[in-house]
């Protein structure tokens, strides 16, 4: 055996399949469909699943590219084989599919998922099922929710927090990249009452791949390279999703300040969180609580005092690195969290969730270390 | 005449030379020395002065590179001529120098400047004379100040705030890049009591050129590209400089939260400032106050509601763009400020200051628009 | 005066206006229209002209953006003033225009230029009038030429080669970026018979801005960063333009190998040219011939033996740097040429040409040194 | 099983261990030492071996960093476990090591490898044993070879060409990145006499990681970003290595033109090769010969007509993509080859070689697809 990257004992529970469920393995792999495979998150699922022994990609859909070889759309995958051609979603033979990753654009997902046969387990990477309150959805996404019944069934897929519910879920709403980067460090601190709910300020920085692969002038190389900017100031759509999670953690409504920034890099995300500690709480208390909370988690790693995480430390990997620092203003702390927005912030966490749903060891297919430099 | 970039009437005062002083012009240019010219700020002075009609670079010093042509050190300037060779600072003939830009490293500057003939007007780009309190200097820079008398004489060179004092100064301490980006938006707001002094949180992002040209592993292309990270968390040396200025503005001691981030770009700096408004103050009040404060300033521009500045909008130029936004948390505001760290954050502001000191129109040599893309 | 960048005496001829022509100056500036100003070359004209004392931009056209402020389209120019709003080309009052830069897309230019009043001097940055042979145009650009009469009148605007014809031209066809980078070093060598016409192999590398500002997936940041690729192998449209020029120089038909490569950088272009020397010709002969040929030219600089030009040495400037090296294969030489594709490869050379056409000193507005780092 | 990436049947020979040799597997892994692990190629071995089931990294050496945790040197590997601390090479217990990757700098390797116990199988990533002729070594590397006897034993590790010799080798000299990218496409074409030996011109482009991790001004982010340049024109050290291989293929001495270029990207390498076809040979002949030659090879892939490989299509992977194009000059062809310089150009090919040497399936640990975007 090479280097073991499984430094932590994952809770055994995660390896027990629900009673009613088939067991998938290298000899009997689950048949996986990826809907909307022509975008970056779809492609990232394909890349990661190329090394997954228990999942077999048998269906790829893409409406405008149907009929093409996948490597016509993503030429770097000319070296992968057994990748099916793209077809239209209406042409999928669902009898021969066990589970699906849904990588369709926001708002197009609801009706398609509502129409799927119920034996299909789904991880949805769009935002369509993340917000429990459909009126909040309507407010931020500009339209009535078209599958409110299905919404009630959806489980929010922040794996390390909602693992038990995910295990038996039929539909998991995979978290957004920003919400993942913010909730993993702050959820436990709010839940334990170690930080206050007011004046939580989150300054986030994201790579460009978060904007997707559609041709837009704002994301041309010439418009992005060698410069940075804030965007969606005070009104980014991930805001209600973050607040929903943090409010759950705190047990009371939390309203945060959240400002995303576009970085000249393809992948990577950092959230720098400025928080107030509760009375008599110290920086060490925060760090130690996070260490304890995540000590059995493979993909969340809390750094020792003084170490600063870089987004390049998680490029291409499913890890989340967290660090806690004293602020110069007494009583305040700075919590830094980095992920790869396409992996732990999207397709990696989606696979992690499906592993949990299908009773496969949670780390399967996800143990790649960061690509550096 | 081409496009006029002087959209604002600069106060006439700035164009009147002090009584005792010579008048410099294209036909009788000031003779300029640049000390420590082999770093990026020295080179940037040379680049900008190549188009300055009233200043003539006659001396360049560089201890380890003395004897070389400047284009041996900066080959892109092979196309500039009349650039003197590098000499040692001990070999400068000060009788033929009118003014100097001092681009030496921190801590090496004090003794050299203390030894200069008193007819030399100096803009010092190091940190050595920025902090009025020499004990604060000793605390943050790790050594006793070696020219405390000269420190008393130094004027802090944030041009738009201290212009009157700069006009007659012999030694101007040019502000740091982070302090420039933070003070220009926040100084007027604190001075007018529109924002509170507590809980000022500044998340800053800088290009790599701020780290200088010395060979260090951490700033290799391979270590910087395609990723970001915080650094100097809670202990960056620009912190006391920012606090000194903001405390002056507020009339009481201000302690801020300040976290710098390293960006994969050569130039550019953004400070995203999270502040609390005073009672009954609105976002429009903040914006309008800044608009009024800077309406006659050429190099500070406050954007209208909704427009977001990019660092690439000021690349290579001496401008500072500022924008004000409502925060989602009631009572808070987000103030965004962008500069080019090597121009308004260093060499450009230094030239602006020397223009003021020598009675030359303040914009001279500084009207280049941003290089985009 | 600051640093003099005019290291070379420009031939006096270039400063003499044609007899029939008005004299333009800072007090009586030429009124300039920029057609198609919403792309990068249009914008680059605006940036450079912002510092041109004898040209005044009075008209900007952009069909789809008509009615907007120019800074709505290029926000970094919010700091420039007296920039006119965009209008439709049909709304231009040509009586109040002296000259025009035409930055319209290929194939749209012919009819517009054919319809202009004859008092307008035009520099056309499109490819429409570069090829003398309209059948070659039709072959490479996919359509009949719509203004063949005007084509006969057009002068090819490689300034250093065709200056005399440019001076009296009404319409100058500004060269493409690749053709500029290749012809400046190779034209004189072929003309003097120092290199052979066969087996000329040109491997060129270009920044992304050459692809323009239209939203295309292939030029997204995520598709371009951190990787390179050849494109248009054996069939790039600049090939006939290069061959036309080199054939003129050689006095016989030249057919070259030309392969362009897309680089992850916004600006800059290098052509690495692999050539065979004529009998008994040495590397020094090549270099010395180029040195002599360009010794009075401000914008073409031949480096001494052993120095290697970088594209970053000319970023934002109008310079062309050339270097000559021995090849390891006996009898062969390597000639390297770098320019900024948007300046000497487009808008800078266009201004240089209009300066010549209007009798203004050729360097006017173009003496900015490279922006480095 | 997920996607099968083994699209080709690897020759069964490669899976047969030499008779005299142990068999390694997941249950009985080989114990691997990495000498000089603190550079990028050492680190890349660690990254790739983290997923190798039959190799276990038990020793890491680094003279100046001895005593440190590996994640102190490469913080992104804080998420990998069972990674040994760095020790000095003199402290290695060779009795417990089966094989070594030697990632030491050129010229330091010879004496260390000559002193190793003979049971250790070694893949040397330095240049020290690549050149058969020690006088050529002395000429290009500036010093006498210190282990000429060992040199005679070394096998050149271009896996797809020398696999049979590699299988039984004790010391494999892993090819340089440029030589790998050039020889894989050109070796078969020369061997078959399809292209001529004269006038082979190779224009190569490399990412910055090829320069290593040592702090040098020339490789700072600010000196590399947003620009390109040739380097080592006519005198790069990889030239004799390429010529040695191509001469072997042709059966006569080959002298090439080779010019490397530094690209603003961390990883990736393209060689654009300009060649002359033999009489009556066509482009299709070239392509078809390469297709046939590599049809059973997993890591070399020849693209169909018209497809252009990008370096980003192989980022992080062990693949080599090759494409063949007609040149505009009759009788000439353009052959494009891309690899990741740190994987197929260094550590990936090294692992491929050790797999062959130790009788492990050749693709083990190397089936990661490219990371895109």
Automatic annotation (TrEMBL), chains A, B, C, D:
<dbReference type="GO" id="GO:0070401">
    <property type="term" value="F:NADP+ binding"/>
</dbReference>
<comment type="similarity">
    <text>Belongs to the NAGSA dehydrogenase family. Type 1 subfamily.</text>
</comment>
<dbReference type="Pfam" id="PF01118">
    <property type="entry name" value="Semialdhyde_dh"/>
</dbReference>
<keyword id="KW-0055">Arginine biosynthesis</keyword>
<dbReference type="GO" id="GO:0006526">
    <property type="term" value="P:L-arginine biosynthetic process"/>
</dbReference>
<dbReference type="Pfam" id="PF22698">
    <property type="entry name" value="Semialdhyde_dhC_1"/>
</dbReference>
<dbReference type="InterPro" id="IPR000534">
    <property type="entry name" value="Semialdehyde_DH_NAD-bd"/>
</dbReference>
<keyword id="KW-0028">Amino-acid biosynthesis</keyword>
<feature type="domain" description="Semialdehyde dehydrogenase NAD-binding">
    <location>
        <begin position="31"/>
        <end position="169"/>
    </location>
</feature>
<keyword id="KW-0560">Oxidoreductase</keyword>
<dbReference type="InterPro" id="IPR058924">
    <property type="entry name" value="AGPR_dimerisation_dom"/>
</dbReference>
<comment type="pathway">
    <text>Amino-acid biosynthesis; L-arginine biosynthesis; N(2)-acetyl-L-ornithine from L-glutamate: step 3/4.</text>
</comment>
<dbReference type="GO" id="GO:0003942">
    <property type="term" value="F:N-acetyl-gamma-glutamyl-phosphate reductase activity"/>
</dbReference>
<dbReference type="InterPro" id="IPR036291">
    <property type="entry name" value="NAD(P)-bd_dom_sf"/>
</dbReference>
<dbReference type="GO" id="GO:0051287">
    <property type="term" value="F:NAD binding"/>
</dbReference>
<feature type="active site">
    <location>
        <position position="177"/>
    </location>
</feature>
<dbReference type="InterPro" id="IPR050085">
    <property type="entry name" value="AGPR"/>
</dbReference>
<dbReference type="InterPro" id="IPR000706">
    <property type="entry name" value="AGPR_type-1"/>
</dbReference>
<protein>
    <recommendedName>
        <fullName>Probable N-acetyl-gamma-glutamyl-phosphate reductase, chloroplastic</fullName>
        <ecNumber>1.2.1.38</ecNumber>
    </recommendedName>
</protein>
<keyword id="KW-0521">NADP</keyword>
<dbReference type="InterPro" id="IPR023013">
    <property type="entry name" value="AGPR_AS"/>
</dbReference>
